[in-house]
Amino acid sequence: MPIEKTQQAIHHAAADGYTAAADTYARGRPDYPPGVADWLRDSLGLQAGKTVVDLGAGTGKFTHRLAATGARVIAIEPVAQMREKLSEALPQVQALAGTAQSMGLPDASADAVVCAQAFHWFAGAEALAEIRRVLKPGGKLGLVWNMRDARVEWVAQLDRIVNQAEGDTPRYYTGAWRSAFPFPGFGPLHEEHFSHGHTGAPEDVIINRVASTSFIAALAPRERAEIDGQVRALIAAQPALRGKPVVTVPYETAAFHTVKLAE
């Protein structure tokens, strides 16, 4: 796919933000809970001999989990800087330039397609038709999101700081992505949730995590500095965070899957 066409297929917040923040993304994003390994095996059927596509793979944060199943992994990522980070970390994974609307893979070539932290960017008929084309009959589409647990008050305050800058950026929490379903050729969505925590230095698990948010990374330097100042002020005001060398940010992982129906 020509570079200009690929760029046009990516939301401007992702194209600008993830190009600028590939390093911060790799440092600031949380891992996924242990229960995801069982979900990949039991719900998506991933194991040796299977082929899975990591669609919108980013720097490979979830690709590690897919590779651990023993399945052959093909990573599709349109942002070159993110794809380079993935290839450095996982040289055994085939990493290709492409988009959800044009993966460049053969028909019925994958046992599963997984979108981790990604489906909200391209939720729609064109992407789902392309995913359906690439999946084998009976193949699975998996959707995964790691979200801070806003039931904790300081986390809700952090989310309010972040959300003020979102503009027209698609987000998981709005639920708008759900309007893509039901979709012809796919069965119903099945949903599971896992709780876990992201533990580390506040600079990494809070400040770098916020900085890695696409629409914040895409802001002008002065606006990014304002957000950073608000986040640091929140940390300084919270007894659970203030002066702590290590903190834990509570997360909830939502995992969905649907099956491609036989034609």
Quick one: overall form?
A: globular
- Terminal residue distance: 29 Å
| Rg | 18 Å
As laid out across the biggest beta sheet, the strand order is 3-2-1-4-5-7-6
- What's the level 1 CATH class of the domain at 3-148 and 170-198 and 251-259? Alpha Beta
The counted number of beta strands is 7
Order of helices and strands: HHHHEHEHEEHHEHEHHHE
Low-confidence stretches: 1-8, 13-20
Mean pLDDT: 91
Task: Give the count of helical stretches.
Answer: 12
**What portion of the residues fall into strands of 2 or more residues?**
15-25%
Please bin the fraction of helical residues: 25-40%
Predict the CATH topology of the domain at 3-148 and 170-198 and 251-259: Rossmann fold
Class inferred from helices and paired strands: alpha/beta
How is the main sheet built? 7 strands, mixed
Going by CATH, the homologous superfamily of the domain at 3-148 and 170-198 and 251-259 would be: Vaccinia Virus protein VP39
Oligomeric state: single chain
